[in-house]
Design a protein that fits this description.
Blueprint: E1 2-5, H1 9-16, E2 23-26, H2 38-53, E3 57-66, H3 77-83, H4 85-92, E4 98-108, E5 113-124, E6 140-142, H5 154-160, H6 162-177
Parallel strand pairs: 1-2, 1-3
Antiparallel strand pairs: 3-4, 4-5, 5-6
Bound molecules: inosine 5'-triphosphate (ITT).
Inosine 5'-triphosphate (ITT) binds near residues 77, 101 and 163.
Amino acid sequence: MVHFITSNAHKFAEVKKLTDIPLVQMNLPYPEIQADTLQEVAEYGAEYCYERVGEPCFVEDSGLFCDALLGFPGPYSNYVDRTLGCDGILRLVSQNRKAHFTSVIAYHDGSKVNLFMGEVGGTLTETKKGEKGFGFDPIFVPEGETRTFAEMETEEKNLYSHRGKAFTAFISYLNQVR
Ligand code: ITT
C-alpha cells in the first residue's frame, strides 16, 4: 500500500487509472515551500509527510510553464489558478502561445526521497474548451493533438500528460524494487 498525499481528487483519479498497485489518497496538508523549482517543493513535501505518516508515501508537485511569461506560473500554478484562473492566463499571453506542464513525484521509501519527472509541451488556446479535468486543462492542447486536455477522457490525457509520464516512471521503479 502506497500513500499519495494530495488534496486534489483529480490527480488521484488520474494516477489510479495507471496502476494496480494499491494506492490510498491521504489529504494531509503539507507546506508547499516557496522555491524556484518543483523538485525542491516536492522533496520538502515528501520529507514532511513521511515524518508524519511513517509509511512510504509520495507527493506530486506540478505546474504550467508559459514561454511568453518566461515560465510563469510554474511552481506558483496552484495560487495562480485560484486567483487569475484560465481566463487570467489567456489575457497575459498573446503572440507566443507555447507552454508546457511539468510534474515531479517525490517518493519517500522510508530511507530516502526518490524523484520522478514528466513533461508535456503544447499550445495555449484562444478560449477555454472542454469541461473535463481540472486547473488549466481547458486552455492546454498537447503536441500532436487538436483538443484540450479538458476535452479528453482521463485515459487519453494520461497518454500525453506530464503526470502520466512521471507516474509511469515511478511505477516501473516500484515494480523493480518491490
Ligand atoms: P496537492 O494537494 O497535490 O498539492 P494541488 O492542486 O495544490 O494539489 P499543485 O500544488 O501541484 O497541486 O498545483 C498544481 C496546479 O497546477 C494545479 O492546482 C493546477 O492549477 C495546475 N495543474 C497541474 N497539473 C495540471 C493538469 O494536469 N491539468 C491542469 N492543471 C494542472
